[in-house]
Amino acid sequence: MAAWVSEVKQGVNRVVDNICRLSPDLFAESCQHILNYLQGQTGGVDSAKISDRFQRAGVILDHEAQQNIIRFLLLTFRSAGKSNLSGDDLVSKLEEGSNKWPKASLQVVHRLWSEHGALVHAQQETQDMLSIGQLVDIQWKLGLAVSSDTCRSLNSPFVSLLLKIAEPSGQISQRSFEMTIPQFQNFHKQVKEMAAVMETV
Questions:
Q1: What are phi and psi of 98, to 5 degrees?
Q2: Digits of tens for pLDDT over the chain (201 positions)?
Q3: 139: number of Cβ within 10 Å
Q4: DSSP letter string over 170-189?
Q5: By the 8 A CB rule, do 165 and 135 touch?
Q6: Can you tell me the distance from the alpha carbon of 172 to that of 178, in angstroms, rounded to the nearest whole number?
Q7: What is the spatial distance between Cα 86 and Cα 66, in angstroms, rounded to a whole number?
Q8: CA gap 101, 99 in Å, rounded
């Protein structure tokens, strides 16, 4: 157990060492990007955009180091949101995790968390209550089943749907299913009814 704790502390220190290479403004911009996602203002964290911003600022970090910073900030802000920490409490937790934090970075975290922490907490409570994904994409195709192991001559049309869903965790999952034509027509009718109701809201 002690070896595991030591390894985790070393990992945190490596991430903090890399955060030290970011100017306070660049660190604040990265934190803001992640906080926007955690508040539900964006569909995800665009790590390519963050990476590009690092490069334009002259900060050279390998891909793994950049991903570790993003994951660390996501986990830190997500955990602080679930625990409803104040800015002071969050800074204290960060200082407990590593003694390498520069004062300027901790001030950035304190300022941004004091401004956005309550919104992150509210968004997480809502997500926990709902715990549903968000539809990202839908693809369909029309097919014709010509035979099966129980029937030689089916000649039965069907619709195949593939849904891409952004899960609350941020992962994209795919769900696929098939419907007969009457099932699809019923589905279509229900979607039209939903659209009509949404237009009245």
A1: -155, 140
A2: 555 545 657 778 899 999 999 999 999 999 999 999 998 888 888 888 898 999 999 998 998 999 999 999 999 999 999 899 999 999 999 998 888 999 999 999 999 999 999 988 888 777 666 667 778 889 999 888 877 677 666 778 889 999 888 876 667 788 898 988 889 899 889 988 888 887 876
A3: 11
A4: S-EEEEEEEEEHHHHHHHHH
A5: yes
A6: 20
A7: 26
A8: 6
